[in-house]
Specification:
alpha/beta, Dna Topoisomerase Vi A Subunit, Chain: A, domain 2, 7 strands, elongated, five-stranded mixed β-sheet, Helicase, Ruva Protein, domain 3, 2 domains
Amino acid sequence: MQSYPSKLLENAINEFSKLPGIGKKTALRLVLHLLKQEKEDVTNFGNAIMQLRNEIKFCKSCHNISDTETCDICANPQRDHTQICVVENIRDVMAIECTRQFKGVYHVLGGIISPMDGIGPKDLNIDSLEKKVAEGNARELILALSTTLEGDATNYYIFKRICKYSIEITTIARGVSIGDELEYTDEITLGRSILNRVHFEPLLAR
């Protein structure tokens, strides 16, 4: 067991090591780096994290993170509000936006259906998606979930909920390899997958 010369140092390392992908050695390097910085810089760092946690909002329309009740994308009149791109999480919104190929709006589910992880439809933002479609203002729903078994199962569930409405349901082209997550797909491939989307075919129904 690692021995530290200071309980304060140990506490800071333990907190940093709770972050994804951060082990004890990396946490130690980060904490020692902060100790070398000016107190004002470290205070600003801490305040930024606290402000983020306490003041960040989730868009009332698409569930993306925002500084205001409605995110900049949903509030932008230049976006095509008749196209709704359904994504798993906020990172996927950022990945698609980086391609500059999509001009519609988004709907963030907050995850995908995964019984192994105890995540069911009620844990996701699916009810609000159906309500949005039911209003009749959208003409196309683009399913842009990860090409995994869980992603495909979620696509199928959404399709079964939405297909009764008069709306075109498409999915991104399989330029994204099977098993890949959108945030790890290069911008060119992801951009082409968005542009070359196809009509959704519920494979699970076959």
